[in-house]
Amino acid sequence: MPSLGGLLKKRRTKDSQTLASELPVSSEPNHSTVPDSHSHDSSEGASMQPAGSSQEPPQQSNNAASINNLINTPANASEAHGSAHHSNAGQAHAQQAHQQQPLKQERTTKGKYSQEDFLLQRTLGTGSFGRVHLVQSKHNHRFYAMKVLKKAQVVKMKQIEHTNDERRMLNRVRHPFLVTLWGTWQDSRNLYMVMDFVEGGELFSLLRKSQRFPNPVAKFYAAEVTLALEYLHSHQIIYRDLKPENLLLDRHGHLKITDFGFAKDVPDITWTLCGTPDYLAPEVVSSKGYNKSVDWWSLGILIFEMLCGFTPFWDSGSPVKIYENILRGKVKYPPYLHDDAVDLLSRLITADLTKRLGNLHGGPEDVKNHAWFAEVTWDRLARKDIDAPYIPPIRGGQGDASQYDKYPEETEHYGIEGEDAYGHLFPDF
Ligand SMILES: Nc1ncnc2c1ncn2[C@@H]1O[C@H](COP(=O)(O)OP(=O)(O)OP(=O)(O)O)[C@@H](O)[C@H]1O
């Protein structure tokens, strides 16, 4: 059993460096809120629509409940609600619905927004190349998340292509479980991306506070991720950075995948070594060509981590040790795991690409039809018509960032004009 000291507190970065400014996840108990079923995403318009800007009043809190109590409460789990039912007809519908979901028309945003359009607020998170701020539009007064990437840092870390890909991929996708990009621009030092503000915080924080999720809770999040992967793969996009840090919760408790920094348009195979060590598939580690199959491997790691509280190949030493464990491929399944879960995990976390679920002839349907997902009504899930197991306690209305850890703020001013050595490398921003 690995020692979980570091893993419990630290977010894992793409390059495995720990963030100097990172604060440990708060150990304060969180508070439950009244679950709101039948929630609908208000951020899916083609124009600048409310992103995290619901006009609902703050939700009621229940000061007695810790997150762990809350998500272990059967009444809050989708299975215990009886709201997730197996339905083959539903699966067929969901499949159709996904194939019908169009890629977004490329939005022409260049020159449309600038720093002047937004009031800068607190930092929501930091990453390898910059940080993400909460911002408020001066025009519609709604709240957004603004990702700021330092050009010099992006260039130094040889991430020019990935950064351009991130913008391009995010601009193309439109799905209830993927974050929406509204605009990008650049100044002499930084690149800026304005997205939905997803108010409920990271699944990472919820998981660390809860230690591990009960089977139905893990199943709910895994099912939403499965639909998002199905959508991306049907548009030839591999995501390549699945992990709880990149899964955000909206105010109703549904997932939104953020951080498309490694997403790639890949009709067949690619070779780049990227991702987060714990989550890398063996074909990535061993520098073989790979394809969408890597996301199904990562889904297995994600489900394992949600059910167990740690990743199967984790090592406190170094990424190299983790890579060795991945190549050795030995997974110890704790006895408390449900048999169906172990069966699914062993079919996802397999180095044999001819056996890995999601990568076979049946594609994502093989994953969706697995016994572990038997209760899931996929078409209802795709409509967000299944109650989420945990409703983030967002009491402050719009712009409430209380679900995010606090970070030391950036002192550098944004919007500075001047010499720009790298601007030509990012022509789409
Ligand atoms: N749309 C959003 N709404 C709210 N918070 C967000 C949003 N996007 C990102 N964040 C917060 O900012 C953090 C960093 O964002 P992101 O992962 O995109 O940056 P990154 O530089 O690519 O990070 P990394 O190098 O760790 O992958 C996220 O983990 C999350 O806490």
From TrEMBL:
Q: Which domain of life is it from?
A: Eukaryota
Q: Which molecular function term from Gene Ontology is one that the record holds?
A: ATP binding
Q: What family name appears in the similarity comment?
A: Belongs to the protein kinase superfamily.
Q: Quote the PANTHER family the UniProt record gives.
A: CAMP-DEPENDENT PROTEIN KINASE CATALYTIC SUBUNIT 1, CYCLIC NUCLEOTIDE-DEPENDENT PROTEIN KINASE
Protein EC:
2.7.11.11
Q: What is this protein called?
A: cAMP-dependent protein kinase
- Here the segments flagged for biased composition (Low complexity) are 59-101
Which amino acids does the record list as binding ATP? 147
Taking every annotated instance into account, which residue ranges of this chain make up the domain Protein kinase? 118-373
Q: Which InterPro entries match?
A: AGC-kinase_C, Kinase-like_dom_sf, Prot_kinase_dom, Protein_kinase_ATP_BS, Ser/Thr_kinase_AS
The UniProt entry, under Gene3D superfamilies, shows: Phosphorylase Kinase, domain 1 (3.30.200.20), Transferase(Phosphotransferase) domain 1 (1.10.510.10)
Q: What's one GO-annotated cellular component?
A: cytosol
Q: Which reaction does it catalyse?
A: L-seryl-[protein] + ATP = O-phospho-L-seryl-[protein] + ADP + H(+); L-threonyl-[protein] + ATP = O-phospho-L-threonyl-[protein] + ADP + H(+)
Span list, region Disordered? 1-111
Residue ranges of domain AGC-kinase C-terminal in the record: 374-429
Keywords, A to Z, come to: ATP-binding, Kinase, Nucleotide-binding, Serine/threonine-protein kinase, Transferase
Biased-composition ranges, Polar residues, are: 27-36, 44-58
- For the keyword Kinase, the answer is yes
Could you give a single Gene Ontology term from the biological process aspect? Answer: signal transduction
What Pfam family is a match for this entry?
Answer: Pkinase
